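User: Thanks for the earlier help. One more: Antitoxin MazE. Can you show the sequence and predicted structure together?

Assistant: Of course, both are below.
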Amino acid sequence: MNTRLIRVGNSQGIVLPKKLLQQYHLTGEVDLQPTPEGLLITPVVKTRRQGWDERFQNAIAQGQAPEGELLEGFSDEAFEETEWQW
């Protein structure tokens, strides 16, 4: 399959056909790796919540209480006093 380079600002890009995007699950962010044969394009797969545990442990080590600070600044007292009805 042949395609042309197109100008994108000061760079150049290519348009990938929808069928190829679907076949190789390419959406959003992709990884580009130069190889001796050419350019390898692969999808970037990020694990949800990746690194959260490490960040929580670092915060706790620094004396923070992330679970306590999660809702800091939010208060529903006004809602309870003016809008909520039993």
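User: Great, one quick takeaway?

Assistant: Residues 52-61 form the longest helix (10 residues).
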